[in-house]
What we know:
The protein has 326 residues and is an alpha/beta fold. It is built from 12 helices and 11 strands.
Amino acid sequence: MGPLRPTIAVTTGEPAGVGPDLAIQLQAQTERARVILIGGRDLLLERARLLGHPFVAKPYVPGRTEETGTFVLDIAPAHKVVPGRLDPGNARYVMALLDRAMTGCQSGEFDALVTAPVHKAHLNASGIPFLGHTEYLAGCAGISRPVMLFVTPAFRVALATTHIALKDVPAALDETCLRETIEVLIHDLHNRYGLMDPAIGVLGLNPHAGEGGWIGNEEATVITPVIQKLKARGQRVSGPWPADTAFLKASAETQDAWVSLYHDQALPVVKHAYFDTAVNVTLGLPFLRTSVDHGTALDLAGTGRARVQSLEAALDHARRYGSTRG
Length: 326
């Protein structure tokens, strides 16, 4: 068991989005953790005033031993922030928040990392190549096969491929990709979540899992051979399962986790059913990273209409599992 009250870093994300709005609302949720908000102190105070939300920006001092509460690790944005208005001058600020969080997680200063949303297209347009948190954090940690896992109240689903074009999925989905994804999933389900012999269901790539080869052959040439090799090693891996019925209650309850072969194969189900409670987890890292299951919502920034439930779920997940190193 790790510390009863872990120290959790929370990056506040794109400053013009809802990240700051949500971060200041976490203050009432930190009785059982020490939460370090990484972002501009003045930005958070200004957003709190705009929303009429009570917020005390206690400064974070590394090495102090306060048991619980919310603290601010102050990194100021380069330009004044206007809610809802992206500013290329603050793109480097967004990355600085992630880099400081990574440094703390890798050194053991923080037990886990929770990330508020960033605007990937804006970062790329500002000259910063950025596929997503998952890929960036894995690169910083020197991890070759990060795995994106979504945890809902009813099921878990991992992605074999993430932020690539749909036309590129079949080529990316080779035996190595699929096998390593499943291996990372099994490893972390065992070591972090305590599932000693997890059952893993692998979805088919094509409609009806290929219909016996009549609708594509990836099931026969890639997916089934990987499943058979892992089963021969004693792993409880099954499939390929037709994706259109896998998440029905009768099927979903048979597996500890599913493997989805591309981003939008499973995420419409996750977001339709559990938008406020699903947690995005990055597996394969030496620490736990969780995130909200939504974007920057620029139109809601500063309005008071942003819903904090997803960030609360991500924080609660980090508190419960973050002190166990994968």
